[in-house]
Amino acid sequence: MRALVTAFVSAFLAACDASRTSVTTFDGAQTTDKAGLTKHGERLVHVLGCTGCHDVGLQGTFFTKDEPQYGPLYASNLSVELPRYSVSQIDGMIRRGVHPQRATLWGMPSEIFQHLSDQDFSALVDYLRTLKPIGQKLPPPQFSPQDRKDIASGNYKPAAQLVRETKYQSPVDLGPRFALGRYITEVTCAECHGPRLEGNPQAPMGRIPNLIVAAGYSRPQFETLMTRGIAANNRKINPVMAGVSRTRFAHFTRHERDALFAYLKARAERQ
Prior knowledge:
mainly alpha, two-stranded antiparallel ribbon, disordered N terminus, 2 domains, two-stranded antiparallel sheet
């Protein structure tokens, strides 16, 4: 009897230890193949939206070109900038919102990237390190009167401040079964829908719903939304969502979309 109890306790403690050390990542992060990890990092460039600001070739953009009331503000030319920095400095910029020279970053969504696993971060950096320098270094931020007004009012905050403010705000934890889906929401969906996925009906780019709306989708409808940007029953959706579905979420694996759907449905059922 004592041996049986000892075996049970040992198994229980081993399971607890495994749960503490298990890490949730995107598919592909656990490969030990160097080329496979670099390829995984290349996929994450799309999934995480790096190309949305830094452009397809990651050579940077003048992203306030059509909004002259702001900036001028540029997304950096990563092919030129990154070779200058150590992995620790790149980590500071991506996951903590801290620039090694300017101290603060603006517009970098570090508040969600702070949740990026070490494995996914390493694969991302491995890929970024393969970029060949093309083009020129782009100018640092230049704040317009409107920018300064928004900063003073608190409507425009540096990345490091957003990291601090949202550090302990996360989507509801529904247990290990839904861990991957929850992780995906933390480092992608939360950028627009907020750290608790509650949405923002007053967002400047148009209404952003609480992701409880997933309750109204079947799995095939969700697949169409995630890969083609078309909502269930052809309902009108925020054009930002339509765009990121095609350019970012279509790069999820089928398994990742399954996990995301399962988590969002389970979260909606708890509301």
